[in-house]
Each structure stands twice: as structure tokens, then as C-alpha cells.
Amino acid sequence: EVQLVESGEGLVQPGGSLRLSCAASGFRFRDYGMHWIRQAPGKGLEYASAISGNGGSTYYVESVRGRFTISRDNSKNTLFLQMGSLRTEDTGVYYCVRDVRGGFDFWGRGAVVTVSS
Amino acid sequence: DIQMTQSPSTLSASIGDTVTITCRASQNINRWLAWYQQKPGKVPKLLINEASILESGVPSRFSGSGSGTEFTLTISSLQPDDFGTYYCHQFSKYGTFGQGTKVEFK
User: Do A102 and B91 touch (CB under 8 A)?
Assistant: First the structure.
């Protein structure tokens, strides 16, 4: 059974940092591109970042570029999102998702990130 | 960046209705489009991939069509379980979501 379990959620002050992790199981992790998708309270889905299966290619939406870093450890089946210089508008639920032929077939339950003073 | 414009933003319908949601891309994305359903407090669920391929387990009343810049999601004979918010997602170049369409009970 495919499982994606996020951790590292929390409350952080503006300007602070947070590291999210996503533990994957039930599939050959290295074969899949992975993404972080976020959703602000009461809002729609927004792309945050993506990484290829071997980690050699990454993408960031403009609003997080230079502040967030996506990475993965294929030996530990884990995806990461290092978030820095956090802003109040970064508040939301962050989903770890698996990419299958472009669509996202499995989603984690989400990690709640709150940026507030 | 590719922009995705979804319409309508809200749709009121009754059980048994056929509803259609439209998604327009700001440039040609071929058939690199997916549709998701999200219910309150739940994670999104992939319904359709590559514009028209129904995911395993998704009822056949859901269908997708289109290519290039114009896409539609059709739900035939709306059921109580179909209420929620629907999103389109282009993955031709990186990724972008539409703003969502809330399907509510009339």
C-alpha cells in the first residue's frame, strides 16, 4: 500500500525556518517525481516545488524560489522541503504528492505550517 | 508561466443533473491535464489524467475531454457523493492549478 506521511509541521515566526519531511512507502520511491503542493486556509491548491526521481532536476514556484529547497534521500525513501525566510502568506497545509505520468495519484495527509508572530 | 482559468467558480446543481466544468490554458498544453476532486477537510483525489484517462476506481459518470487550450470535466447524473471542489492541473510545463470549481447542492 502506497503511503506518504509528512512530518515537521508547526508554528514559526515570520522570517523563521522549518523543515518538512515526507516518508514514502509501498512503492519504488526513486522511480517517481515528487512534489510539494500547498493550500492556504480556505483557498485553492498551489504548486510549491517539485523534484525528479533521481533528484537531479528541481522546480520552484516563483513565490518560494530562493527561500525553499526541495531534496530527497532515495536510500531512506524520504522527501524534504527546507523552508526559510517564511512569510505569513506561506501559512497553509503542505502536501507531499507522487507524480504518475504528470498527475498526482497519491497525496499525504498534509503538514500544517503556520507563520505568525 | 502557464495560467489556468477555470469556470464557473461555483456551480449549483441537483442530483441527476449533468454538469460541466471548463478549464482554459494560457498556452497549448496538448493533453497534459489532470482533474481532481476535493471534499472539505480531505486530500484531493485524482479523477482524470492526460485530459481523458479515467483513474482506476473512479465512476464512469466522470469524463474528461479537450486538448490544446480548452478542456472540460463532465459529471453525468450527479450523485450526492460528487459535491465538493474540483481543480484542473496542467503539467505541460512544470505545474499550475486552476482556481477551483465548487459544486454545491441547489
Answer: yes
